[in-house]
Amino acid sequence: MSTETRESWSGKLGFVLAAAGSAIGLGNIWKFPYITGMNGGGAFVLVYLGCILLFGLPLMLCEITIGRKTGKNPYGAFKSLQLKRSRTADVIGVLLMLGAVSLAASGHYGFAVILFAAACLFVWLGFAAVGLISLITAMLILSYYAVVGAWIVDYVYRSFTGGLHFTQVSEAAGAFNHYLDREPGRIAAELIIFMVLTAAMIIFGIRKGIERCSKVLMPLLFFLLLAVIVRGVTLPGAKEGIRFFLNPDFSKLSIAGVLEALGHAFYSLSLGMGITITYGSYLRKDENILSTSLWIVALDTLAALLGGLAIFPAVFAMQLAPDAGPGLIFNVLPATFYRIPGGMGWFWAGLFFLMMTIAALTSAAALLESGVTFIMDQFKVRRVPAVIGTFLGVTLLGFLTCYSTNHWENLPGIEHFVQNVFNVRTGSWFDLLDKLTSNWLLPLMGLLTVIFVGWIWGARKAGRELREGTHGLVDENLITWLSGFRGEPRYMEAANSGLTIMTLWGILIRFVGPVVILAIFIQVITK
Fold it and tell me: 318 by DSSP, 3-state: which?
């Protein structure tokens, strides 16, 4: 039985850098630039920033508050905060069962079974099921996220050894597809390397492991980003890329693009996976949740913006397409970097993929830590065996993705099962996991989290925890504070009433958040 005492972050800086590292991942430097390119550039960026502040930040406050209040993993946290019996949880269970019946009727038996299992968990565990499903989601995401990390590790090696000499996008795309289709064993070996590096970051604990690594890796990440940006913006023709990325053109932004921005704001901050609750559980009571969350959001958003500036100026300067979708990183950028004048394209490509490796590692460490913390808390296991066990489980699951990234050729038995049970006729195991987690589980867990905080645990109780360490800032009247009349005798009576940060947060999580996240959920599952 474990006798380890629960750790805590050494201070605000350690928590902010670690939490920012969990949020700053491939979603910022890979997904954000390519969905920006597909949705018209600057207008999408503005909408995304608004979504981060109005919806991403309030949900992050919910998750950190849950974690710090309980000092437990997501499952233990929800379990300790919920009522002994929640009628709302029963209603949600019934609704999920009805959804399962609907899916079964349309032939999607696999998804129907998963939804029915989630419904049973709600009836059995109540809102503790949210924490448990969030943890399962995190492990599923890590199993294929680590494979993408393996690809990036491979491209770091190829960059510095001269293996990315492509003058055309078609050449780079052909080489990448050959790598995915014909070298699964190599990818599996690189997956093990990536997972070993991830486990090494957390095996020494919160302070000596995650925090210490984050204090080195996060500054290095931003340094590499700036280095690539400086080279890109100094290329002839780079101004067009900057203009595309930062100049708003709302005529190119559709309703689908707005919902895409909403969904990415949610995904980018690593919400709905249990990560933020886990990290928040190690936060000291005297830390200001509001200010730390603002710093995390600021660093995450800055990384996304810098990621765009690292990519689009160079892409436009080399006269390549900015709207290439997911292939932007592995197909377009190798050709982009190779074309850079001076014969140093290999060096800039290497720096870029090294930067992406750091982003992938810090996020993967957070995902792995959520599983490790759960095992330590619930089964009283020490950290080292918990890390080893979680590492082995995720890596073995990741092998399925390694051998079926583009298609099912290497997994014929599983292919037959998935096609008949899940009614999925195209894609791969990778696509199936991505659809299940990103389109279904993440928005669903986010929706249930805001419902829980706003209505079950209660905004007032959550607000008391959020208020700790803020020195009254969250109760300042925003109108009086922003207008410059704070402290004026005539307005002193209204200093702590009306529209405050606390009341605005309560409105957002009780009413606005559920509606918006439900809209995201409906949008992604009906694509």
Answer: coil
> Which pLDDT tens digit goes with each residue over 246-263?
888 888 888 888 888 888
Tally of CA atoms within 13 A in the half-sphere of 287 that contains its CB: 26
**Mean pLDDT, rounded, of the chain:** 90
- Provide the pLDDT confidence category of residue 3 given band limits of 50, 70 and 90: very low
How much of the chain exceeds pLDDT 90, in percent?
65
Percent helix, percent strand, percent coil in the chain, to nearest 5: 80, 0, 20
Q: Is the pTM of this model over 0.85?
A: yes
Instruction: Decide: 214 and 19 in contact? Cβ < 8 Å.
Output: no
In angstroms, the Cα distances linking 460 to 71, 236, 448, 502, 505 are 19, 56, 18, 9, 11
Which residue is associated with the tokens 């109540």?
A: 126
283's torsion region: left (phi>0), alpha (psi -120 to 50) or beta? beta
* Domain ranges, ordered by start, for the chain: 12-82+127-525
**Both structure tokens of 48:** 């995304």
Segment 293-307 mean pLDDT: 94
Question: What's the pLDDT at 37?
Answer: 82
Question: In the CATH hierarchy, which fold is given to the domain comprising 12-82+127-525?
Answer: Amino acid/polyamine transporter I (1.20.1740)
Rounded to 5°, angle at Cα 356 from 56 and 145: 65
Quote the CA–CA distance of 272 and 444 in Å, as a whole number: 8
Beta partners for 477? 500
Q: Residue 201 corresponds to which tokens in the numbers above?
A: 């970051």
**354: which 2 tokens?**
């090294």
Cα–Cα distances in angstroms (integers) from residue 503 to residues 14, 59, 255, 295, 460, in the given order: 29, 14, 29, 21, 10
- The CA-CA-CA angle for residues 90, 93, 94, to 5°, reads 90
Q: Is 406 helix (H, G, I), strand (E, B) or coil?
A: coil
What is the end-to-end Cα distance of the chain in Å, rounded?
A: 48
| Cβ neighbours of residue 519 closer than 8 Å, sequence gap 6 or more | 259, 262
Report residue 1's pLDDT band, with 50, 70 and 90 as the boundaries. very low
Q: Which two tokens stand for residue 505?
A: 């947060």
> What's the pLDDT at 426?
61
Angle at 32 between CA 28 and CA 34, to 5 degrees: 135
Backbone angles phi and psi of 477, in degrees to 5: -65, 115
Instruction: For 70-101, give one letter per residue: b (16+ CB within 10 A) or e.
Output: bbbbbbbbbbebbeeebebbeebbeebbebbe
Residue 331 has pLDDT above 60, yes or no: yes
Q: How many CB atoms lie within 10 A of CB 507?
A: 15
What are the two backbone dihedrals, phi and then psi, of residue 459, each rounded to the nearest 5 degrees?
Answer: -60, -35
Question: Tokens for 36?
Answer: 């920006």
pLDDT of residue 340: 92
Q: How far is CA 496 from CA 82, 117, 271, 297, 517, in A?
A: 29, 46, 30, 26, 30
pLDDT at 4: 58
CB atoms within 10 A of CB 319: 10
